[in-house]
Design goal:
This protein has 594 residues and is an alpha+beta fold. It contains 14 helices and 35 strands. The protein folds into two domains: 125 residues, Potassium Channel Kv1.1, Chain A; 313 residues, Neuraminidase (6 Propeller).
């Protein structure tokens, strides 16, 4: 015996349509639901099929199963109307004004299928005006996806929300969980910690019961990013009680500000910028023959630019380094008074050292070096800065080495190099400083010599020489190798790598982009060369591009072009907070030439 099983797609929808028509005409309705004096006729069978609440209510043994009128007191008429329409049609009518009533009814009546639709509606309609309401509703009715999206929206747009007076926005209505998650976030774009603290204080005072959560909120404030005056005012205020542990954090931050020279050594969570990202900063040098004052930032991943700061002095042939995410600019040549017999600018070597703090966009001048130095090298070992060799005034050369102690803000002499030298390059590997090339006192030609300095024993040692004599070149440490790149007046574009373990140099693939006087920085496992000059028809011609060297695959690629030519610059990677990036047009308007 055979049989045939068929399925009709339209039947299910037709049944719902007919049920809706019966309800509209009041036919065969066996129950009336009453809310706030409003009566809603319905069919027990369909209610029981759509709602766990009604299924349990209409069991045979319940009193309600035989009742023709049922009063519901926990929901609104608007919410019940919307949910009944959904039960009968599968269509859910939603708006921000009726959403809470709808969720209240769907939750109370256990119409589970309506909840994800409400969640999706919240996610798709989150705006500046309703994001706080969305977060509160999502938490109240346990809409996890909607809560996550609302919190993300609030975090990314808090800078916009805080533009208005907090007391006139829904921010003060924000639920505790979202508020704590927000303040814990490492990533709050464009929001100054000062404004964040002000928001926290107003939020806590809006409802005194929230003071129970003051400790967890204050534990996630970056006190090191607040000004000294703000910290003192916060410590003295009485509107929001502070626990002893929070007072200790404030005192620690006050001490942090009280010893500015030590700050690079005192970095922790409380002095770390939120939403920070590594930017390549271009410092000093020349553009179009003029000394550069603006310090620009370049994001190698997005090719975006931003204005970072202005130098305290225009400088060339200087050195830079970063410690604790503070940028140090050391020595170099600065413009002096023109000589009497010429109108050309006279450049003087300097021993000045400036430090830039990206947290407060602030420069300070720390203790100067003992010697005036230009075309020298500096290296960082164990948070100590080593200034080595270089030129002084009147073309004098140094063999001297001095060390900067950050905690004491002092320079002290170390063991001199084995010769007077300038124009050399340096790199650090396993806390050992390596110096290569340059020109020695009394010599016209560049040198191949390589020296190493061990801070532990304070001794200089001569190592295997480079295969090419170099001057004004640069070195970079990547993994276990030290790469040596092009210098001035080199006839070829060869680069080479030094193996400190075996004291051996090996030539690599030549650069396809010849240049000198460029900026160099290491990003992950790649070395980037920015700007500089090249020889063309016996002329020094500025280059506009940024090229990258892949150390793993020994290959070169052009990354992008600079908005204008930079030469003799220094580059470092600095962690900067989120800010508006600039396009190429804006970079040109932000010309480094003043």
């Amino acid at each position: 015996m055979s049989y045939f099983l068929a399925f009709c797609k339209s039947h299910r929808g037709l049944v719902f349509t007919q049920y809706q028509m019966l309800r509209a005409h009041g036919h065969l309705c066996d129950v009336s639901l009453v809310v706030d004096g409003h009566e809603f006729p319905a069919h027990k069978s369909l209610l029981a099929c759509s709602s766990d609440y009604f299924r349990a209510m209409f069991k045979e043994y319940t009193r309600e199963s035989k009742a023709s009128v049922i009063h519901l007191k926990a929901i609104s008429a608007t919410g019940l109307q919307t949910i009944l329409d959904f039960i009968y049609t599968s269509w859910l009518s939603l708006s921000m004004s009726t959403l809470e009533d709808t969720l209240e009814a769907a939750s109370y009546l256990q119409v589970i299928d309506a909840m994800p639709l409400c969640s999706r509606f919240l996610i798709n309609n989150c705006t500046l005006e309703n994001c706080c309401f969305a977060a509160n509703i999502a938490l109240k009715y346990y809409l996890i996806d909607a809560l996550e999206e609302a919190e993300k929206f609030i975090k990314n747009n808090l800078w916009e929300l805080l533009k208005e007076d907090v007391e006139g926005t829904d921010l003060l209505e924000l639920n505790v969980k979202t508020m704590i998650n927000l303040i814990k976030s490492e990533d709050i774009p464009k929001v100054n910690e000062q404004y964040l603290l002000c928001f926290i204080l107003k939020w806590l005072q809006y409802d005194r019961e929230r003071l129970l959560h003051a400790k967890v909120l204050f534990e996630n404030v970056r006190f090191g990013l607040l000004s000294l005056d703000t910290l003192r005012e916060l410590y003295k205020q009485s509107e929001v009680p502070l626990t002893p542990s929070i007072k200790n954090l404030i005192i620690k931050a006050i001490n942090y500000h009280s010893f500015p020279s030590k700050q690079p050594l005192l970095q922790d969570k409380y002095s770390t910028l939120r939403n920070q990202r590594g930017w390549i900063v271009l410092v000093g040098g020349t553009a179009n023959g003029e000394l550069v004052e603006n310090v620009l930032g370049f994001d190698v991943y997005t090719h975006k630019w931003r204005m970072v700061t202005n130098l305290k002095v225009k400088v060339q042939h200087h050195c830079t380094c970063v410690i604790g995410n503070f940028l140090y600019v050391l020595g170099g040549e600065i413009p002096g008074s023109p000589k009497s017999d010429t109108s050309s600018t006279c450049f003087l070597a300097t021993n000045m050292v400036y430090r830039f703090d990206p947290r407060f966009n602030q420069w300070i001048q720390v203790s100067p070096m003992l010697e005036k130095r230009a075309q020298f090298s500096c290296s960082v070992v164990d948070n100590h800065i080593f200034a080595i060799g270089g030129r002084g005034d009147e073309q004098t050369m140094h063999s001297s080495v001095e060390i900067y102690n950050i905690s004491r803000d002092t320079w002290t002499r170390s063991k001199d190099m084995l010769c007077k030298i300038h124009g050399q390059a340096s790199a650090v590997h396993n806390n050992i400083i390596y110096i290569s090339g340059g020109k020695h006192d009394g010599q016209v030609n560049s040198s191949k010599d390589v020296y190493s300095f061990n801070k532990q024993n304070g001794q200089w040692n001569k190592q295997a020489p480079m295969t090419i004599a170099r001057f004004g070149h640069q070195m970079a440490t990547v993994k276990d190798g030290i790469f040596s790149f092009l210098g001035i007046y080199e006839p070829f574009s060869d680069i080479e790598i030094y193996d400190p373990m075996h004291n051996q140099w090996t030539r690599l693939r030549p650069m396809t982009f010849d240049r000198f006087c460029y900026g160099l920085v290491v990003v992950e496992q790649s070395v980037l060369l920015l700007g500089g000059k090249k020889w063309q028809d016996s002329q020094e011609v500025p280059t506009h591009n940024i090229v990258g060297y892949d150390t793993d695959n020994d290959c070169w690629e052009e990354i992008c072009s600079l908005a204008f030519p930079f030469c003799d610059l220094k580059c470092e990677v600095l962690q900067l907070s989120n800010a508006n990036e600039l396009d190429d047009t804006e970079v040109k308007q932000c010309s480094p030439i003043k």
